[in-house]
Design a protein that fits this description.
Structural class: mainly alpha
Helix content: over 70%
Strand content: under 5%
Order of helices and strands: HH
């Protein structure tokens, strides 16, 4: 086994790891986005309570829901299966 073959095996291994990591990061994007949206919503609720007290209208604060789409998770699972993960 020469240097070029060893380098090729190592490069292929590293690329495979990078691809798995990239796929995992993309799969987790909706969850990270939902966590950030939940934090932002809670902050808006707290500001509403502090600014308006008993007259606060929480029902007027929009809430984002990035994870309610069942099709997105199914597509990601299908993609992972197709790629062999």
């Amino acid at each position: 086994m020469n240097y070029t073959q060893i380098k090729g095996y190592i490069d292929a291994h590293l690329v495979g790891i990078d691809q798995k990591t990239s796929l995992l990061e993309q799969s987790n994007r909706p969850e990270f986005k939902q966590i950030a949206a939940d934090e932002q919503y809670e902050k808006k609720e707290l500001n509403e309570a502090l600014n308006k007290g008993d007259k606060a209208r929480y029902d007027l604060i929009p809430e984002k829901d990035y994870q309610s789409s069942p099709g997105l998770k199914a597509k990601l699972l299908q993609l992972k299966t197709a790629l062999g993960f």
